[in-house]
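Example record for the data management plan.
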Amino acid sequence: MNLTAEQGEILSTIMPGVILMLIISMFGFFGNFTIVIATINSKKLKSKCNVLIAMLAVSDFITQLAHLPYGYFALTGTLVQRLDFCHIIMTPSLISMNFGTSLIWMIGLDRLLSVMYPAG
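Corresponding structural encoding:
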């Protein structure tokens, strides 16, 4: 890998942030996976709101997957990728992020209706 002095300076500046992002992503993968497994295995977590939360965890998991290639590119010094490759990596993440935003709205609406009109 032949880096110019400017590229080396950029990499040394962003490296702590990249490593921190990858560490936080690993915690996110574990947490989201745990939420989905708990929702699947527990009979108490089969309510509509909990299923929405599990769907949000899957959506967040997919969104976090987009961080891995860019972290790898930063760690290896590959600063520029082809545009079509960026689209392949980012499209599932962007769709998942928009879906997650819709799920957050639905969860909030479900909680609001549950507080305004309690059952039972």
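Summary line stored alongside the record: The mean pLDDT is 87.
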